[in-house]
Write a structure and sequence with these properties.
The chain has 7 helices and 7 strands; from the N terminus they run βαβαβαβαβαβααβ. The protein is an alpha/beta fold. The termini are far apart. Belongs to the short-chain dehydrogenases/reductases (SDR) family. This is SDR family NAD(P)-dependent oxidoreductase.
């Protein structure tokens, strides 16, 4: 049964983003997906029986013009935007001294600038409507760094996302807009080398990696949790509970 709400998902063509698109469509949302490649978005649409409620808008989310265009296309197609999931991003673990200037720029563009520009465009629309939600996809390693996974720059950026989530929740609360984050641990997506599976399974007390469906469940919970804002929800099999 349709609930006639519309959500934007960035990084929508693969991995967690693709799982979120399917989960929101199954829950009855209209979904506007953003990714760099239109062909990837077309493939995503083809994987759902609810493709008539999906709109793909290609473009680099690190470009503020892309965020404005995604919002405009969503309103044109579905009338309004009720939610934004800032999922676009990538994880780049390596020893700190090996990060190059190009690595830093790429991480800032995708993991930070895209989130800021998309959130600004969505929040301006939501403030006028006096309702909405923003959910940021963070990372468990930003809550509890792990010596087995050196990732100082992703921790720097995702840690900032966590704090921004709390600050923006306070700022937007008077406008009836919720802002939360989900902090995934190691999730079973194509980005991971299958040869490293045993190592990855042992990074969390649960003894396994998580599934995309488990991240989607957490995001859907926060999308509907009207009395929850400013939360950073770990979905990581205990990875962020502390040293173990």
């Amino acid at each position: 049964m349709s609930i006639s709400k519309t959500v934007i998902v960035t990084g929508a063509s693969s991995g967690i983003g693709l799982g979120l698109v399917k989960a929101f469509l199954d829950r009855g949302y209209n979904v506007v997906g953003n990714a760099r490649s239109q062909s990837g978005l077309d493939d995503a649409a083809g994987q759902s029986s609810q493709a008539h409620r999906f709109l793909g808008v290609a473009g680099d989310i690190a470009d503020p013009a892309t965020s404005s265009r995604v919002i405009a296309r969503a309103i044109e197609a579905f009338g309004a935007v009720d939610g934004l999931v800032n999922n676009a991003g990538f994880f780049l673990p390596k020893p700190f001294i090996e990060y190059s200037p190009q690595d830093l720029e790429a991480l800032l563009d995708t993991n930070l600038k895209g989130l800021v520009y998309a959130s600004q465009a969505a929040a301006a629309h939501m403030i006028r409507r006096r309702q909405g939600f923003i959910i940021n996809i963070s990372a468990a390693v930003a809550l509890q760094p792990n010596i087995q996974v050196p990732a100082a720059l992703p921790v720097l950026i995702k840690g900032g996302v966590n704090q921004m989530t709390r600050a923006l929740a306070l700022e937007l609360s008077p406008h009836n807009i919720k802002v939360n984050a989900v902090a995934p641990g190691i999730i079973d997506t194509p980005m991971h080398d299958p040869a490293q599976r045993a190592f990855l399974d042992n990074l969390a007390p649960a003894g396994r990696v998580g599934t995309v469906a488990e991240i989607a469940e957490a995001v859907l919970y926060l999308a509907g949790a009207d009395f929850t804002t400013g939360a950073v929800l770990p979905v990581d099999g205990g990875m962020s509970t502390g040293k173990w």
